[in-house]
Design a protein that fits this description.
With about 300 residues, this protein is mostly helical. It has 14 helices and no strands.
Length: about 300
């Protein structure tokens, strides 16, 4: 890649993000610098998109050979293995800290404790149990709907986590691996890269586009989470980002399940509202998603200049 310094630079930043958020080794040397660490977080949604495609493939293969319930559980286990339970660990630490601490100092100290307590255990059981139940409900209706929702939920939840890094202050003064990645805002072209990755993750839902609206309650929860963290500890931490990823992924699954309920009129209501939008905004959104790959190429060109 010596003839393409721009490509080599961005490839290096992607690898930093990949090794930070997954446990999959890469057979390449990686160069670390403050600027590369900061801009590598723009690739967090892309890492989520790749991981989600791997998990959806695992589900698809397992669903051919095994009952759907086992296939959903295997896809969840595969996701945890790929990331080393990185986000689940953040969820447990955050719930232990927020449940057991009564001051900023106590909360931050408990978050750094590697041991798991009652609040963390309960949170993991509930979140993983709800994700399995929601996934099984979706997959029982349509394996394609579950696979598409899985891809979108994984990517969107990581996009929202990266947005929190831009929108909120960091709570700790020192002693964290996350702080070097969050010291400065991302340039606009990197924000556009993350947004286009999010749009690309919607493509598997082209036949079930209303699921994409699950991003709205997930985004609202992210706003609440930021305000809650600022109130108690003055900002976010790496563990709090992991918890946010788990919660927003779950919210999107639950929204998708709500759309599939036969006695629920949410699907029909949303369809009616979208059909009456001026200029058929819904079709415009569909068209935008179809052009997302082309937008990715344009962004790649600008990054390499």
């Amino acid at each position: 890649m010596g003839f393409f310094p721009g490509l080599q630079r961005e490839w290096n930043r992607f690898l930093i993000s990949w090794t930070f958020y997954t446990r999959i080794p890469v057979p390449f040397s990686i160069q670390f610098s403050p600027e590369d660490l900061q801009r590598s977080r723009a690739y967090f949604p892309l890492v989520g998109l790749i991981l989600s495609c791997l998990c959806a493939t695992m589900f698809g293969v397992a669903a051919v050979l095994l009952p759907v319930a086992i296939a959903v559980l295997l896809s969840m286990a595969f996701s945890i293995w790929l990331t080393g339970a990185f986000h689940e660990d953040g969820l447990a630490d955050s719930m232990d800290a927020l449940g057991g601490g009564w001051s900023r100092e106590q909360i931050l100290a408990i978050m750094k404790d590697s041991r798991i307590g009652t609040f963390g255990t309960v949170a993991l059981i509930l979140v993983l149990g709800l994700k399995f139940t929601a996934g099984f409900s979706l997959a029982s209706e349509s394996v394609y709907a579950y696979a598409g929702t899985l891809v979108f939920a994984h990517t969107a939840s990581r996009y929202l986590a990266s947005w929190v890094v831009e929108a909120a202050p960091y709570a700790r003064d020192q002693g964290s691996k996350v702080k070097p990645m969050a010291s400065t805002p991302l340039p606009s072209k990197y924000r556009l890269l993350a947004l286009t990755t999010l749009c690309a993750s919607c493509l598997p839902l082209i036949d079930a586009p209303l699921v994409i609206l699950g991003f709205l309650p997930a985004a609202l929860f992210s706003l609440y989470w930021v305000r809650f963290l600022e109130k108690w500890i003055g900002g976010y931490t790496g563990d709090a980002l992991g918890a946010l990823q788990q919660y927003t992924e779950l919210i999107i699954y639950l929204f998708a399940v709500a759309l599939t309920m036969p006695e629920n009129s949410l699907d029909a209501m949303l369809s009616t509202k979208l059909e009456t939008m001026p200029g058929n905004l819904f079709e415009s959104a569909r068209s935008l998603l179809q052009t997302a790959p082309g937008t990715l190429l344009e962004i790649a060109k600008s990054l390499l200049q």
